[in-house]
Each structure stands twice: as C-alpha cells, then as structure tokens.
Amino acid sequence: MHLTKLILFLAALLLLLPGTALAEPQEQLFLRQVSVGSFDVWQHSDGTWQDTDHDGAVDPYGQTNKTLKPEVFTLPQTQYTSGFTVTRVKVEYDFTLTNEELKNAGRSEIWDEFIRDYLRYLPNNYSTAKTGEDLAQGTVTIKKTLDLMPKLLNLKDPAVRAELGMSDRDFSDMAQGWRWYTPVLIEWYGVPKAEVPPDLSNNLSVQITDYPDKVTESEQGQVVAKVTNTSGKYVMTDLVWRINGQTVKSFDNFDLMSNAISALDFTMPGDDITIEVEVNPNHNRPPDEVSWDDNKAVCKVKYEPKKALENTANITIVAPDHVKFGNGWQFTVQVTTDIPKPYVRPGRPDPPQPKVKLSVNSPSGSKFINQYTWENGNWGAIINVPPNGFPVEPTWPDITYTAEFGEYTHIETFTFPPSGMADRNMNIVLYADADCTNYEVPYMHASKNVVVDALIPLDPRSVLTQ
Predict the structure, then answer these.
(1) What is the pTM assigned to this prediction?
(2) 20 to 30 A from 450, CA-CA: which of 52, 67, 281, 462?
(3) How far apart are CA 71 and CA 182, in angstroms?
(4) At 121, phi and psi to the nearest 5?
(5) How far apart are CA 298 and CA 225, in angstroms?
(6) What mean pLDDT do residues 432-448 have?
C-alpha cells in the first residue's frame, strides 16, 4: 500500500517537471496593428458640399450616422506571423496603449503624441464594427460609423494646414473644411504552429506600417516602416529607401537589436509613385539570413493634382474714355492682392511682406499734330510737321512696392503727354502688368482704350490767330 502511494506521488511529480509533459499550445496575442484613417468634409463657395467618399451623396457638416465604405485589413505575412495559426481577430476603436505597445504596433510617436495628434480630433459617436473576417487568409473587414461634427480640425486655418503639410494655396474655391480622424486597433490572436516552429535565427524583415493613399502634387508625404531582427543578437546592417527604383535615402550602419522604426519624408511629384524600403539589400550583413523574401516592403502612393491657387490678385486701369486734343491727362492703375499670411512656427521669424512689381506702357502709334493751315475752306498743308505727325511714345519706370498680407490695394497715378490729330479721332491703348515677386499669385494684366477727340474748330482761322 505504501509502495503504491509512493509510485503515484512520483508519477505526479514527474508531470510537474519541465520536459516531462507536452502542454497544448496556448492562444496568445501575437500582433497589434494601429491604423489612423481620416474623413474630410468641404463646402464650396457656392454653398454646396463635396461628396468626399464618392458614394453618390454629398457629405455636409453636421450629418449624423455617416457610414464609411468598409475597409479590409490584412495580416502582414512575415516569418514571425506565419508561425501562428490565427484563432481570432479583435477590433477596437476606444483603446489605450503604452509607449512600447504603440511602438510595437508600428507607430513612430509616443502615446501622448498620438493623443495630441489624433485622438483629440475624433468625430461624435465614432464606432467600428467587424463586418467580415477570413482567419485562414488573415483578413478582417471593418465598417466605421460617425457623425460629421464637431468643428475640431479646421482645414482652412493656415496653421492647421501647415502642420498637416497642406499648401496654403489649395482649395481656393472652398468656403470651409473640417477633418476627423478614425483610428482603429486590430489585435491578432493565434497559437504557435507546433508542426513548423518558427526559426528565429538570423533573420531580418521590414514591414510598411503607415503610408498615405494619395498626396497632392508638391505636398509632403511620409512612409513609416518597422524593421525587425529576430536573431536575438545586435546587428548592424544596411537600409535603403527607393522611389520608383531610385535610391533617395540610405543607412550604411543601421543599428538593430529587435525592432526599429524608419521613416521617409518625400515631396509628391506630378505622377503616381512606388516607394520601397529594403533591409540588408546586398545580403551580406548578415550573409546567412533564413530568408530574403521579407527583406523588402513596397507601397504605392497616388498623385492628386494641385487645386487652384488661394492667393488672388487683379489689376484695373482707371482712365477717361475720351480726352481733348492737345491736352495732357492723368490715369490711375489699381492693384489689389489677397495673400494670406503663411503660418510660422513659434520662435521663427515672420515671413517677408509681399513685393509687387508694376509696369505701365502705351505702344507707339500715338501722334500729335498742332500746326495746320486753312485754305479755301479746306485743311491745308501741315506746317513744319512730318506728314504723319510727331510720334508720342510715353514711358514710365517700373514701380516696385511692398504690399500687406490679406486684401491690400495699391494705387499709382500716371500722366499722359499731349496728343491727338487735328482732323480725326485717335485711339490710345494703355497696358498695365503686375506680378508678386516672392509669392505665387495669378499674373495680372489689364488694358484700356482711350480716344483723343479730333480738333475741328467752328472757325479754323480763329485758331490760327490765337
């Protein structure tokens, strides 16, 4: 009896010792993804609202229960994630993460910055829901619902647009615009694949975790990548970023212990681009990775054309329609510019005031004849005057002046010398051109036709005697 109890006790003890029993793989959270979407609404200057998501209905500010088009998120296929059988995927819109958790989810900022940049700009009644999933393929479909309010992130504010990398010259025909962010946390759960345990020795991989779908021409964009080292040892390797196959950024000594974040800032050209990031591109640091298949990640960014200029300008010539023969006369040129003051970060110097160059001219062709005779009831020979008269070709020096930001009007006055023909009307054309030399505005041009009335006195001989 005592022997039987001893045997049972020893058997139970063996079960508790490491390696004496194989435990079933346990489900675990093996990957987090944080996606930050956004939704904008724009009202045109005529009062109509834009159809932001092209679903056939306009999206006005204040709309409630707006449902966005479903989004499909895919589990990244890396050597690490392929070592798990997905058991479930969880989606959250109201979440809190530590700095380390946020970093491991592929974000480059800390949690306080994430709150400052995104979570304080959430729309009212924002929520998410899973509408489909395919665990075998590693996909989940998410539907987002929100109210298009309140007024938080004003896209017409130059300071906001500067922070977002948006040009001050975009959306000139828009009366108002607002943005809300729609972040979502995706958590993938699974059990390790017992039959094919992951080989974590000497392997580097890279994954693009954040990039814009489209960027306006000449605006700034950013792509963020997460680089992973699964060897458990410190590695110094190479990392390159390419746009359309051309290297634009490289690191000869990229330090990597486990995970690291790298980002590429770029200026959008006038066409779609392909951006790729590659770790250890020469396969020599280290030379014995388990696989080269996950050393490169690629994304495509679509080009969006620039909107019309927001800066406006116009020029007007104010002159009489008719002037008298032989008299000098004046006209004015009025230049109006409306240039919003660019946003300047605190501590930076103020931007330079707009400089405007004004040019005024009248082409050759104006004439002046003031000597004539009257013979037998007809105009006679012109005395000491060429047959076509004296040419009048006035010139005025260019004028450069400093304008103010916002709407500003500048007026210059010019004098035209005496001109005219004795026996017929004469047309004079004035031209004025202006341009801002240090800010982009529409080119300004104006013209004005002035008629110099003919001198036909009632008694021409009375003129001769004056």
Answers:
(1) 0.42
(2) 462
(3) 12
(4) -120, 40
(5) 10
(6) 89
